[in-house]
Model the fold of this input.
Amino acid sequence: MIGWIKNRRSARAGAVLALAAVLLAGAVFLYLHDPYQYPLPCALYLLTGFYCPGCGAGRAAYSILHGQFYEAFCYNPLMVMLLPFLGLYFVVRGLDWVVTGGNHVDGKISAKLLMGILILVLIYGVLRNIPVFPFDLLAPGGMKQIG
Done:
């Protein structure tokens, strides 16, 4: 079956559309699911009391879906800044796979850029746990102090 999908453009397009439908269903669920009333717990935070780089991402995504971009930025500024680039990557990668059946995108992305993003995410994860101004602004909801 995998070979059939790889060899037929219409099958690849169907697979990408099916994935898009699943992602849309997830976005609708998140739009209707209030993370303030029913929070999605972070395992790292529950075990250690430290925020991971993704803490606040559920509330940030909920805020983005409701058009509240400043509030989203308050919960996870790094995710809000990286989200357009991730979205662009997945759209271009999906289109490339549908049209060509191959991967001509990943080879064009610099390994140094990816390493830099990984280091940025790790540093962000450390800095947002320092309970001193201005680092406490990076904790989920921390920027609401200045808003």
Observations:
- Residues 9-32 form the longest helix (24 residues).
- The chain has a mean pLDDT of 91.
- The chain has one domain: 2-145.
- The helical segments are 2-7, 9-32, 43-48, 57-65, 69-75, 77-100, 111-127.
